[in-house]
Amino acid sequence: MPKNNLMNLRLNSFASFDDAMDMCALLSRETGDEYTVMPDNHLGFTANRIQSNDKKLNKKQEIENEIREREFHQAWRGFITNYFEIIIGSLLIMNPYRVMGWVFYCLGIETLPEWLNLKGVGELLGLGGILLIIYGLRFIYSHFAEKLYIDDDGVILKKGIIAQSQVQIRFGDIKTIGVQQGILERLMGIGSIHLDSAGTNGTVDIEFRNILDPISMRQNIQNLIDTYIKLHG
Could you tell me the CATH number of the domain that includes residue 200? Predict the structure, then answer.
């Protein structure tokens, strides 16, 4: 055998790093497993399997099973504005005159006009605080009334508690999956997910807000779509 042979058939070693990389790519295509180049004590480099395709498929199947047959609600952390409304409303109820003093200080008002009825304004602020708390508590209804449900056939958006409406898109009909996140939403790890079907001309069929980790959810739904297409064509 010539001395310049780059491959030792017994040891499966390569003198060239590029040759070892090519072998890794070939093995990955043929087996579906992941391979990487490792140095050895012989000619230089060898292809080493780092992850079995079966493990990848099992992990993917576990993730798909986790989101299938499960209802998703809006994340509590997505209602920060509602929490501020409740806090401000509570301050207005507990001490409306101090809040009034803060407002006058911010506006630079040092002398109050004689016609101003502080007692009446305080009662009005207290009433406004009650209304603000009631308005802020609407997030409880939003959390429980709007649900995203994923089954074996597609994605369903359910709205309502007693009276209920539903919108369903089958996996085979989903055209695009969009994710929208503002700066604050990215920091909190939430966002909105949009699902468009093939016949809507860009109109959003399903929009679900304040969902946790929307990027992963988009990928999981895409995996379910791919699996559905493989099974049903």
Answer: 2.30.29
What is the β-pairing status of strands 174-180 and 190-197? antiparallel
Angle at alpha carbon of residue 224, lines to 222 and 225, rounded to 5°: 65
217: Cβ–Cβ under 8 A, 6 or more apart, which residues? 67, 72, 193, 211
DSSP string, 122-171: HHHHHHHHHHHHHHHTHHHHHHHHEEEEE-SSEEEEEE-SSS-EEEEEEG
Please count the structural domains in the chain. Answer: 2
Q: Are 172 and 198 in contact (CB under 8 A)?
A: no
DSSP 43: S
The neighbouring-strand residues paired with 207 are 194
- The DSSP call for residue 173 is G
Per-residue pLDDT of the chain (233 residues; tens, 9 = 90+): 444 444 444 446 777 777 778 887 887 777 767 777 777 766 677 767 666 555 555 555 665 566 666 789 999 999 999 999 999 999 999 988 888 888 777 878 777 777 777 778 888 888 999 999 999 999 999 999 999 999 888 999 999 988 889 899 998 889 899 999 999 999 999 999 999 887 656 566 899 999 999 999 999 899 888 888 887 76
**Residue among 163, 218, 216, 161 at smallest CA distance from 195:** 218
Is there a domain that residue 226 lies in? Answer: yes
| Residue 159, in any domain of the structure | yes
The C-alpha atoms of residue 55 and residue 184 are separated, in whole angstroms, by: 36
Amino acid at 135: Y
**Range of the structural domain that residue 222 is part of:** 146-232
189: left (phi over 0), alpha (psi -120 to 50) or beta: left
